[in-house]
């Protein structure tokens, strides 16, 4: 691949450019007339996946309002690639469980998760989705943590978490995808070992 | 219309009743048998005009159940509280969902949470609880759930 | 923990009553962008005309009433924040009023004014979000972002004083938890100035829009007698001409001496409900203006014991939330925890009128009706 001459002039020959989060992975090797960028296909695919995660519209209770605030103009999440919130799980990449999961809703959540296409990721937003939250004791109908139903990648604390906390969690998920640590990626690399 | 005129009119309308006015609103204990007929009279009476049922619930005293109806009006600002005591083994009270349409949902909720039967209700089935919870009556005081309930 | 389990119980999809031949039964929700929460509607259709709407609730039933029987009188107030989270302050206010009724504690005047200010700010925030979500349901996407911009101003005011943006645990029995931040009056005055122009802008953008009016006028009629019979309250009943604003009929705190109008409309259709809420925004602004310059000095909390014990008896308090009449009914046996609590939620009764209003209309009309009913489902399921 070719890069522009200005970037090559700044660094000594052969050294990789300073890679920030979200920058294109790979090493630049200058050759006369431009440069060649050498990278691994896995890293490029992970970079592409992490920068365009489309969330599913799934909010059960109060955290949904903070999720809507994050989608709005002040704490915009489409800066990070979460541009379109899809209503159907077939077209979504990440499901942000915003709100309490109760016994009646758990099969619905499982069915939505199963309908999503691989690779799919899960963020458990708020105290209720992490562990049952304020409804932990003496309730006969709350599932104490969404990870009893589907596997979760990132947990966010708060009741409800601030929009900045949700953005931090989304960026953490992006970094997790880029470093190859999500369940699907581990499963693909080591298929005979049980995944956590 | 204030509490005393309400109680006076109640005594005229239902001579067998014993309303008491010590609390904020007048409280009228009733037996459950003729509740439907008396409910119609309470709603249609020109003086009382109690056409707004704003709360319908049940309380589990461990020896009996009590249905509590809070009746208000769209014309005046007084309210009336009706209490009907029910037997714990076979609780049943006539449904008033054809008199106040809001009672349809409220009675379904009391049916699933306390197990009270409402003969005359058009569609008595579970409203909020998931499938398979008929008969479990979670809001009764003897509801056993060793997994979730902690006795503090 | 998750171990690749199978679905144990598939979700309920069959109709509770089989439809006649030629009728189609479809599910709307529980995961749907326009149900404002997890509401599952089973709609029986004849072509595109709705024959019957059957709501299935319980997808967010967190058994709050049973849980409150083991919480103390100071703790249970904050579970109501999570029920109707858009009127969180007003719900907490109702619980605090009920406990104060039982303890017979008098709230100092400064705390009363602070409570009313917070209530009206919450009402404006709730109606703003309703307006944005309603326009989004009908198809306009811009008002959603405009509404959240206003909400962010109110959230900043709340965060400075109460510490949180959405579930502000601020009302305690006897008053409020902290005193107002010194910047509060200045910020509220700036907000009033800013918002007054905005309402005119929103009227121009949405209310006068021909497409919007065609979608809402004549849809979902509810007569006054039906509204009373179904127990509807709040803007739903006021749009049918029923005068039911509890701030006027049974005034609590300082509402008795404030000048504001109860907004009534006669149409009973979706457009009337829309107009009632937009006019209530102006009334709330005028209440804020009347109070913000006259906050009395004094205590912000009456002295109460650390552990509260209500005497034996029953207590009921009613307040007017952004959705309608919210009631808290406490049955106490003299202990530190309530014996039975019942929360009378406004959405529960408003939802029971949905079947009546939607019959004979089309699916698009159903979405418009649900938008104007302003349902918050955790409030209904408790």
SSE succession of chain C: EEEHHHHEEHHHHHHEEEHHHH
Q: Strand count, sense and closure of the main sheet of chain B?
A: 4 strands, mixed
- Largest sheet, spatial ordering of strands of chain B: 1-4-3-2
Average pLDDT of chain B, rounded to a whole number, is: 85
Largest sheet of chain C: 3 strands, antiparallel
Instruction: Specify the number of helices of chain C.
Output: 14
Structural class of chain C: alpha+beta
User: Major sheet of chain C: order of its strands?
Assistant: 1-2-3
Rounded mean pLDDT score of chain C: 87
- Radius of gyration of chain C equals 21 Å
The percent range for strand residues of chain B is 15-25%
Q: Pair with the most extensive interface?
A: A-C, 42 and 43 residues
The percent of residues in helical segments of chain C reads 40-55%
Q: How many individual helices of chain B? A: 3
- Our measurement of the CA-to-CA distance between the termini of chain B, rounded to an integer number of angstroms, reads 46 Å
Fraction of residues of chain B in helices?
Answer: 10-25%
Q: Separation of termini of chain C?
A: 27 Å
Provide the structure class of chain B.
Answer: alpha+beta
What global shape of chain B is seen? elongated
> Regarding quaternary structure, how should these chains be classified?
heterotrimer
In short:
The complex is a heterotrimer of chains A (196), B (152) and C (382). Chain B is α+β, with helices and mostly antiparallel strands.
Structure description:
The complex is a heterotrimer of chains A (196), B (152) and C (382). By secondary structure, chain A is α/β, with parallel strands linked by helices. In chain A, 33% of the residues lie in helices and 13% in strands. Chain A has 7 helices and 6 strands; from the N terminus they run H-E-E-H-E-H-E-H-E-H-E-H-H. In chain A, the strands form 2 sheets. A 4-stranded parallel sheet of chain A has the order 3-4-5-6. Chain A has a two-stranded antiparallel ribbon with strand order 1-2. In chain A, helix 4 links the parallel strand 4 (94-98) and strand 5. Chain A is globular and about 70 Å long. Chain A starts with a helix and ends in a 7-residue tail after the last helix. In chain A, 42% of the residues are buried. Chain B is 22% helix and 20% strand. Chain B has a 4-stranded mixed sheet. The termini of chain B are far apart. Helices cover 44% and strands 12% of the residues of chain C. Chain C has 14 helices and 8 strands. In chain C, the strands form 3 sheets. Chain C has a 3-stranded antiparallel sheet with strand order 1-2-3. A 3-stranded antiparallel sheet of chain C has the order 6-7-8. In chain C, helix 3 packs antiparallel against helix 10, helix 5 (184-207) runs antiparallel to helix 10 (270-292) and helix 10 packs parallel to helix 13 (363-373). Mean pLDDT of chain C is 87; it is low at 1-5 and 9-17. Classes of the chains: A alpha/beta (196), B alpha+beta (152), C alpha+beta (382). Chains in contact: A-B, A-C, B-C. Chain A binds chain C through residues 57-62, 64-66, 68-69, 72-74, 87, 99-100, 102, 104-105, 107-108, 110-112, 114, 134-135, 137-142, 147-151, 159-160, 162, and chain C through 1-2, 5, 7-11, 30-33, 37-38, 58-64, 66-67, 69-70, 78-79, 81-82, 85-86, 129, 144-145, 148-149, 151-152, 155, 165-167, 378.
